[in-house]
Design goal:
Length: 177
């Protein structure tokens, strides 16, 4: 096989995997395949019908937040944003991350080393795409945000790899002197 075909195939797998990383726990990838709807066994304070979510969100946001989709690397609105402010859930407005914890991980998606507060993110095991990852969702509405990996910077060692489509950004207001 020609080397460029091997490289192209590997790149394709990496892009399909989202923010691909090695599994962070020992659960076999064949254990179960996650479906593409929010976890029905989890209860979130905001519960809407699919029709209501489709009215509120753009088709792209709906695909990411409600169907657990992933935007392509280096295409999202916030992957390279360096402006000070807060990142909120595009589904419900919950503050999820602050710009002080955002960093350039090189993966092509906005990356943060910790959430804004400890209770705004819900985690779930994700067995899709032949790997085991930890999915992160908004604790208020259950919207799919992305995944968290154990290869981030200190002080947490975590990399929250988040889809721009799942976020709204609110720029920090300048303080008057």
């Amino acid at each position: 096989m020609k080397p460029y075909l091997v490289i192209a195939a590997c790149a394709g797998v990496w892009l399909l995997a989202g923010c691909g990383s090695s599994p962070t726990n020992g659960t076999p990838a064949s254990a179960a395949a996650a479906d593409t709807s929010p976890n029905p066994s989890m209860n979130f304070p905001i519960a809407k019908s699919d029709a209501d979510w489709q009215k509120q969100l753009t088709p792209e946001q709906y695909h990411v937040l409600r169907e657990k989709g992933t935007e392509r690397a280096f295409t999202g609105e916030f992957w390279n944003t360096k402006t000070a402010g807060t990142y909120k859930c595009a589904g419900c407005g919950e503050v999820l991350f602050v710009s002080d914890t955002k960093y350039d991980s090189g993966c092509g998606w906005p990356s943060f080393y910790q959430p804004a507060t400890t209770n705004v993110i819900t985690e779930s095991s994700d067995h899709t795409l032949g790997m085991v990852r930890t999915e992160v969702m908004c604790s208020k509405c259950g919207g799919h945000l992305g995944h968290v990996f154990e290869d981030g910077p200190q002080p947490t060692g975590l990399r929250y790899c988040i889809n721009s489509l799942s976020l709204q950004f609110e720029q920090k207001k300048e303080e008057k002197k």
